[in-house]
Amino acid sequence: MTTTVVIIVAVVLVGAALCFLLVRGRPGGGGNLRRRFGPEYEHTVAEHGGDTEAAERELAERVKLHGSLHERPLSPEAREGYAARWAVVRETFVDSPREAVLEADALLARLARDRGFPDGDRFEEQTAALSVHHAGEIGGYRKVHTAAHDRSDTEEMRTALTEARALFDVLLGDTPAEPARPGRHRTGKTHGTEGRTTA
Prior knowledge:
Layout: H1 2-25, H2 30-37, H3 39-47, H4 52-66, H5 76-95, H6 97-114, H7 123-133, H8 138-149, H9 154-172, E1 190-191, E2 197-198
Antiparallel strand pairs: 1-2
Helix pairs in contact: 2-3, 3-4, 4-7, 5-6, 6-8, 6-9, 8-9
Protein name: Secreted protein
Keywords: Membrane, Transmembrane, Transmembrane helix
Region (Disordered): 174-199
């Protein structure tokens, strides 16, 4: 009798362990989503008030909707035009920070649309699609969008513009970004001759 009970308990434990491993390792599972989205995973969990299951459902849905999107290349002329407009944004910031972040927000929306992402008029849909392909850089775009539409002080706008540069640089190139890794993602910041971070 006791041998039968031990065997049954062992079978149940092995079955439970296998189920746990299958759920953890399934495509779109929590561990995979955390690795794929990096900082965006934590952002989404926070947006859901700490509910990881709801956040993971949302992230899995984003992958399902936008994972097969292929980014369109930019022509050399378009790339040069966008680079020139970003330079104007940086110059404008000195005298008109609000105008500069408004233009940076609009410029990123147009650039993302030209690369094949949903139109920037639907910000949430566009950022959802961008987060699937550029999770490590999407935070800067959100910050510049918030700075452009909310009351932000000059330092907040400067930080937003600097961080938004990461997504701008990735979208301006023709090579896809590396998948986001926790604690390791491109910042897109460049450094001047004196080591200062610039937008």
